[in-house]
Amino acid sequence: MKLIPVVLIFMCSILLTFAQEKQPQKLKVFLDCNSVCDENFIKTEITVVDFVLDRLAADVHLLITSQVNGSGGNSFQLIFFGQNSFKNRLNDSLLFSLSANVTSVETRLETVKRIKLGLIPFIINTPYVNSIEINMQDIKNDVDNSSSTLFTKDKWNYWVYKIGIDGEFNEDEVYRNEKQSGNISVNRTTPSLRVNFLLNGNYSNSRYEYDSSASILNIKVVNSNYEMSHYLVASLGRNWSYRYELSYSNSTFSNIKNKLYFGTGIEYAIIPYSQSNNKFFAINYNLDISRYNYFETTIYDKTSETLLGQKIQADLSLKQKWGYITSRITYHNFFNDWKLNNLSADLNINLRVTGGLFFYVYFNGALEHDQIYLEKGDASIEEILTKRKQLQSSYKIYSGIGLSYRFGSILNNFVNPRFSNY
């Protein structure tokens, strides 16, 4: 009689195992969108597949990238990489664009709709093919009709206008600060031309007041800057582009009473511009002329000067299944003295080494030997502590590096929004 419970348990385990084996397997999808999509919403709306955390265990690696388009909105690209049993299938891509006026709700609805479309060729090879419903009715009020064709007639002729203002105020017994800023921009973007006009300004007024037993320290710091600029970028073919830029600016912090700048240059895209959503590599060369007028005499005994210069810049970005890399190297110098130069570098790498192991590094640095505008003379302690004016520095660095490892269950279908702020 004692064997009956054991036999029953054994029989139940066999039945459970058999039932699990009979359960149809869902398509496994690895969602790779680098924060350009709402992952929780996608997982909630698409339950016919299993979203997994390990890209190597997935049947489909879904890579989603985006770029800002001429209207101020975003152009998205979805690439469906087949893996494991689907590794011999050709990769599929879907493109769609959304204007700057769409809401986040509309964006995620459109993203989910495109994901569903892209997954259909994979799901039809699974037992869940009956979950597919297709509606071929004409949709009159789409979220963004601009995605239907690149050359749709536009009543604004592709011109986009933007106005912004911002204000900030904070105060306590020792410190008081107020800031105001505003900007106006006008731009037009087409496949062959990009034009921009910009006006912006900032004003900052800070007060430091400290009453000690010896004396009362009262410091007031006022800084302001403004800029008016215009640039044009024109296509010269599949790989070549031309640009020019004109600007007029001011900065009390940098001792610049006014600066008039004109620059022009050419760029060659080693990887064609048409592939820029996933990979981009270009080098550009620019010549510039600048006319400076200063508030105070500079460290080079100048109150005004005109300088000719040149700039060389290389940009590289890659967004692939293994992660992404963005980098830029820029060199600039003035012709009157080649020692007055600036070399800067930016690097951001995020790599999936294997499974749940990630490696990341970021770096921003510059060797600055062209601070010609710095005010002559020593700065006071108050000016240093309150950042009343810019000080000389031959370099600046900001960097970080790290590893992360994720393990455990590879399934990631569930969404739990409770106490989302914790």
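Second entry:
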Amino acid sequence: MKHPYDNAPPRAKWSRSVSLNYDAADLISADKMLIKKSDKVISAGSCFASNLVPYLEKSGLTYHRTEVVHPAFSDNADEELGYAKFSAAYGNIYTVRQLLQLLRRCRGQFSPLESYWIDMGTLIDPYRPGLKHRARSVQEFHALTRQHLQKTLQAFKEATVFVLTLGLTEGWVSKADGAVFPACPGVVSGQYDAQQHEFHNFTVAEVEQDLATFITEIREINPGLKFIVTVSPVSLVATATSSHVLCASTYSKSVLRVAAESAANRFKDVTYFPAYEIVTGPQAPDTFFQGGKRDVTPEAVHAVMNALLAHCEVDGQIKKEAKVAAPVRISEMLVDAECEEVMADR
């Protein structure tokens, strides 16, 4: 051996694993199944995270749900912003600080001072601002919120695998107590007040610390919980910084990618899954993005999920069917709801 690279495996060399013989499943560094048939999977993250659910369920794996629509409302149209798409109705979670805040609210360790907004006789949840069905009294609001947090805590306690998709570093917070909103007040609902609300772009150190703290604190109530952490390939729709949105998006994704790697290196049973690289890398075809160059196509989601399923305990026939399934057919299962973030560019 002349140098350490002589005996490196093909996956360590660009010419042998990207230029030639590229297989997205080879990007995952895992020596065991990421998801087993016996696992209870929950997930959280930005809009891209919702795409995970139909694939898992179609493949015979268990997506664990603790908060579902009551049968009396089963005929009603689904929530536009995907609250019903996740394990509990928390909807899209864009920043790690927002996720940590949710856990602490569930455990009774944090209660936002700005607990609700009032609009035309109804009460709006600032942390689920797009909910279609609003409470009509303070008593009803607190009862529904308490039930939601209990169901979310149940999901956190009962899960065996947590798939977390990191989406943004930009967020809007309360000046009073630092509570993080999923969207700038006034974008989805409520009213923006410069005296009460402020913009914050989380740093590498902050995201790393928030993610480490979240993993540590959730394992206090669920010690065996495994994590699959990924970064959304969907760029920012708008930035509140002075940077060009392209530069702001690059910053955001870079910070999240570093934080994800840090967590995977620091904690046992935390695996980084490279959805971001599969979709945005130079090996990816142009057809992975729609015409606006921001939203990913069903073909891209299909490629990502095939790579994940290759490392899951799914029988061979299901894997074969998933591999040849037409992206158009798969797209019928995808979440077509808009994100709160999209509303910032209207």
